[in-house]
Please model this.
Amino acid sequence: MKNISEIDANFKIETSLNVKGIRFFDIQSAPFKVYGVFKEGGVYRRMPEKAAAGVSGGVLALHANNAGGRVRFKTDSPYVAVKAVYAGVGKMAHFAISGSAGLDLYFTDNDGKEVYKSTFIPPFDVKEGFEGIADFGCKKMRQITVNMPTYSTLKELYIGLDENSVTAPADDYKIKKPIVYYGSSITQGGCVSRPGNTYQARISRRLNADYINLGFSGNARGEDSMADYIKDLEMSAFVYDYDHNAPSAEHLLNTHERFFKRIREKNPALPVVMMSAPVFLPDDNWSIRREIIKGTYNNAVSAGDKNVYFIDGRELMAAAGNDGTVDNCHPNDLGFYSMAEKLGGVLEKVFAE
Amino acid sequence: MKNISEIDANFKIETSLNVKGIRFFDIQSAPFKVYGVFKEGGVYRRMPEKAAAGVSGGVLALHANNAGGRVRFKTDSPYVAVKAVYAGVGKMAHFAISGSAGLDLYFTDNDGKEVYKSTFIPPFDVKEGFEGIADFGCKKMRQITVNMPTYSTLKELYIGLDENSVTAPADDYKIKKPIVYYGSSITQGGCVSRPGNTYQARISRRLNADYINLGFSGNARGEDSMADYIKDLEMSAFVYDYDHNAPSAEHLLNTHERFFKRIREKNPALPVVMMSAPVFLPDDNWSIRREIIKGTYNNAVSAGDKNVYFIDGRELMAAAGNDGTVDNCHPNDLGFYSMAEKLGGVLEKVFAE
Model:
C-alpha cells in the first residue's frame, strides 16, 4: 500500500473540479491496472492497430473504441474523480452519450461484491474530454473498477484522489485469463445506458472474471485474419456471435464453422460458446441462420468435442421478452440483463467444471 | 371501416420518404384517436397551459412534453409511417434521443396482445422534425399504437399509410378511464430508450388501460394547485411519487398527505397508490422520506380508507437490483421493467377487485 504522495505525479493535470487537495494520476502508472485495452500509439485499443488493419477497414476504424476497457485499484480516498481525454467520441441517436462515451464506477462491498456507485457522464456537446467525480462521503479502503466507454476512444484517463489517501493494486480476478468475446455492435455494447451494463461487464462481476471485448459494430464478418488473431490470445473461454453482421446466411455458412475450427485447432480444450443473434421473435431468416450456427456446434459434438456450447438467441432475450431492444436490434439495459442472465449461467457452469 | 381515400386529406404533406402511394393523415382527423395528450394552441399538451401556469414555471415549461401521448387506429396498410413536427426537442447526455424525442409503434397480434414493432428514431441533429416508417411486409388488419416522445413537444403528427388501405377506429381500452400518474422525471419517462418502455406504457399494455402521464422533470413539488387540477380529472386510479423532487423531507411531510387528502376528498373511492422513490439501496435520507410517504398511507388506513396502496421504492427496483439506473437516479429500461412488474401487479389486483 502506498501513500499517494509517493506515486510519481510530476506532471501537472489541469482540472476544473473545485476539490481541495485532489491529485490526478495517469492510469498507466502503478498501482493502477488496466484490463481489456492497452495503450499503443497514444490511444487505448482493444487489439494492435496492425492486426486490426489486417482484418478490414471497419475493424481498423473501431478497434480503438474502448469497449470492455477497465482500470482497477484500491484506495481509501473519500472520492474518486476521473479526467477523460478523448481521441474520438461516439454520438448516436439510439444510444445515450452516457453509454457510448461515458464511464461508470463500481466498488467492492464488504461481501466482495462489485456494486454500482456512479456514472461519469460527459456533457452533451463534449469533444475533447471532461471530468467527473464520485463521492463516497467517507474515507474507507475500497476496491474500485472504472469502466471505459464502449463506442469512444480515450487517449488519456486520469484518476483523481485525495492527496491524503493511500492506494494499492486491485486484487487479481478469480478467473485471470480473460473471457474473449467476438461479435457485432451488440457485443461492443450497443446500446447500454452506461458501460457497466454490457452483458460482458455483468458476467465479469458475477464470475469475477477478466474479459476482452472484440465487438465491432457492423463489421464482424468472421474473417480468417480475425480468427488467427484471436486464436493466439490467452483465454479462459471464447464466446462468439456475429450473426447480425454476416451479410447473408450463405456468408455465415461459409465462415462460421471455419472460424471455430481455426480457434479450436490452436486451443483444443478451450470452452467455446456459440450464440445466434439475440432476437426474441425471430422470422424465418433468423431461423435459417440459427441452424447454421447450431450446425457448427452439432458437428463439433459429433466429432467428440466436449468443450462447445450453443445458445439460441431467443433464450438470450427470454428474460426481456420483446421489449429488450431500443430498435428491434440493439439491446437496451433490459436486453443486456437478459443476455447476461443466460450466458452468465452457461459460463458459470463452464468454469465450475 | 373507411377506405383511406374517403378520409379528408386535402392538405398536402411534404415527404422525403420515397414510398409510392403513401398518403399522410393528421392524427387530429378521424378515425385516429389521441390519448394522454390533447392539442391546444397548436401543440400537444398533457394539461391545459393555463392550469400548468398556475402550478409553477417548471410545470409550465414541461407540460407540453408529450410523455404518455399516444395515437391509436386500425389499418391494413402494409406499413405505417410517421411524420413528426416538433415545437421542441429534448436532448440530454444521459438519455438516448430515441427515448427523449423518438416515437415507437406497437401492433396488436392475434391474441390481442400489443407487440413492439419499430422505433421511429430522429436523426441526432434533428431540429424541426423527421419521418420514419415501420414495414410489416404484408397487408393485414392490425390495431396500431404509436407512442409519442417523453421529453419533446410535437406540434404536428401525421400517419402515413398506403393509399389502397383501409382504416378504422381502435378498440376502446378495457379500462377506459385513465390511470393518472403524478411525479418526477422518472414518472415522465427519464431515461427510457424508447417511449414504449416507460412503466406506464408497460402497465397500459398489461392491463389494457388508458393513462395520463403527469411527470414533470425536477418540478413535482406536490403543490395544492396540482392536486386541485388532478382531483377533477376522470380517473380509474391515481399513482403518485414525487419523492425525488421534494426539496427536503420537511417539504414532503408538509405536502404529501395534504396532496392525498385534496384528491381523496373529491374522489372518495378512487384507488390511490403512493410510492417512495425507486432506489434499490436507499440511505438514511431515503428511509426518512419513505416513512413520511408510508405515514400518509397508514393514516388513511387507520381512518378506514380501503382504497389506498403503498409501494416501497426498494420493491419497485427489486427485479433490477442496483443496475436499474443510468445515473443512480433515473431508471434505464431494466429499471422501468422492474417498476412496471411491481406497480403493474398492484394495479392488476386493484382492478380485479
Notes: The two ends of chain A are 35 Å apart (CA to CA). The first helix of chain A runs from residue 49 to 53.
